[in-house]
Amino acid sequence: MIPVWAQVCYVVAAVCFILALKGLASPKSARRGNLLGAFGALLAVVVTFFAYDIDNLGWILLAVAVGAVPGALGARRVAMTAMPQLVALFNGVGGGAAALVAILELRHAELLSDGALVASAFTILIGSVSFAGSAVTFLKLQELMTGRPITFPGGPFVFGGVLVAALGLGVWTVATGSVTLAIILALVGLLAGVLLVLPVGGADVPIVISLLNAFTGLAVAAGGYVLENALLLVAGTLVGASGTILTRAMARAMGRSVSSILFGAFKGGSTAGGGEASDRPVRSAGPDDVAIMLAYARRVIVVPGYGLAVAQAQHTIRELVDLLEKRGVEVGYAIHPVAGRMPGHMNVLLAEANVPYEQLLEMDTANGQLRTADVALVVGANDVVNPAARTSPGSPIYGMPILDADHAGAIVFLKRSMRPGFAGIENELLFDPKTTLLFGDAKASLTALVTALKSL
Amino acid sequence: MTEGVALLTVFVLAVFVGFEVVSKVSSTLHTPLMSGANAIHGVILVGAVIVAGTADEAGVLVVALIAVVLATLNLVGGFVVTDRMLEMFGGTRPPTAEVAPAKVGGE
Q1: Is residue B37 one of the residues assigned to a domain?
Q2: Was domain A287-455 assigned CATH 3.40.50.1220?
Q3: Could you tell me if residue B49 is inside a domain?
Q4: Vertex A94, ends B43 and A263: CA angle to 5°?
Q5: Which of residues 39-58 of A touch B (CB under 8 A)?
Q6: Total structural domains within chain B
Q7: How do residues B20-77 score in pLDDT, each as one tens digit?
Q8: I need a labelling partner for A91 at 20 to 30 A (CA). Which of A68, A240, A308, A450 fits?
Q9: pLDDT digits (tens, 9 = 90+) for A106-153
Q10: Looking at the annotation, which residues of A are catalytic?
Q11: pLDDT confidence of residue A170
């Protein structure tokens, strides 16, 4: 039994976590909320060293340093565009840690209650699902593997079989308390995690990260039950519950349901955007022509996408917008909820370039303004302006709320190539007679536009 | 009330709190909120430290230390990356500050 003062500190830490989540839900208090969470975690860890009889202190502190230094440096140094995969990575290792802790607790299984045995099997399974699933999402986002859904014949049956095997092994592990069985259970969990994420299309991966985040939370909660540590239980449960809500909210922002994201590819949605349409003629223009279009428009709406972020062009687009505003053009940025790779990602990227908050239009406002805009300038975005989401029920993105760039007087796409977007589907808007394409890297194109605009 | 039932009670109450605190959140904050929640479950570090601290043989210690490394990565990295995201929401930095100043994170 741990001392009362330590339990009180754990309660304080738990309150910090609750207030942290509460704070993170509103822009004004978000940063303070996060710091409060960090304080709670620091308090909990320090207290643990004094409350429990901790041996091997030197080794543990060394291990903490080994984890903390790359964690902090990676989080500081990584490009903001690579942030989603970093979050996936951190989530995965958390799940892995929970699974390892639960496996080790089974070494004195005879001391564990039935409830604790069930909880440890749960932690091992869910923790390893989260670890492997996050690893696959990392590979997809880092583009080390294809972002398209990967399916194979009989996939659902294999996945079902693995789940049944995991369940059986879980029951067997609980009945025997065997560490060997627990390790096999973890391996099956890893396989289940991979199979869970493989069929998910690239555009939906952020929602899966959120789901796996909730999974890790639950694994940590169950781990807290095994260790009879109320703080772990509370923290894990908070993340599990809030993560579930958040996953649903994110899915709703994309007009999807969580089950259609996870299992949609199994139902044979025609995702493959075959090359046939790519041969059709498109209208492309040089920077000078596009600069004239923009300079003599009354209202221009910029639709920024991941391509802008990849090219690190957020500062250049701001320069272009400043020039246009000086000429009396009204400019706004239409931000799709999932522009970039994650909900809110684009807001972060544009804030980095000091774009004033008032110029960032949420989707409903933006769609109203697009109707009266002379030019929609689509920079490195594709799927979020694809009218197929409104018009073709067979499309995998059908039903996803989009920015109605097609309602603007003219549409300019800055694109690297005719390659389809992250969702892997053809965009009819590219072939629209109102559309002009300016090929090239987003930053190079924008710089050319800035130069052309200055010389007008 | 036995220990198990007490923990179960805590669990059920925490579920409701978790649902409640994030019930209304704008899509702008989805990413930082997910990232912040992600950091919080890094507190599994507490569990990893307990197991490593009571390890009685080398093999167990090695695995437990791996868990400590992974959990610390989750905890420290999670809070630092969330802070970095939220730093951008202030919008009060000078326009030239393209690279954030090399500052040590909160943890």
Answers
A1: yes
A2: yes
A3: yes
A4: 130
A5: 39-42, 44-45, 48-49, 52-57
A6: 1
A7: 888 877 777 888 899 999 999 999 999 999 999 999 899 999 999 999 999 999 999 9
A8: A308
A9: 988 888 888 899 999 999 999 999 999 999 999 988 888 877 788 788
A10: 383
A11: 94
Asked if B71 is an interface residue toward chain A (Cβ–Cβ < 8 A), one would say yes
| B104/A contact by beta carbon, under 8 A | yes
pLDDT recorded at residue A347: 81
Contacts with B, A 104-163, CB within 8 Å: 104-105, 107, 113, 115-116
H/E/C letters for each residue in A110-144? Answer: HHCCHHHHHHHHHHHHHHHHHHHHHHHHHHHHCCC
If residue A438 lies in a helix (H) or strand (E), which one and from where to where?
strand A435-439
ipTM summary value: 0.84
Residue B55 is assigned to a structural domain of this protein:
yes
A261 CA to centre of own chain: 13
Give yes or no for B62 touching A (CB within 8 A). Answer: no
Measured in residues, chain A has a length of: 456
Q: Is residue B24 part of a domain?
A: no
List the domain range (segments joined by +) for residue B33: 29-90
Report pLDDT for A359: 85
Tell whether B53 lies on the interface with A, counting CB pairs under 8 A: yes
Query: Which residues in chain A are classed under CATH 3.40.50.1220?
Result: 287-455
pLDDT, position A109: 82
What parts of chain A have a pLDDT lower than 50?
268-277
| A225/B7 Cβ within 8 A | yes
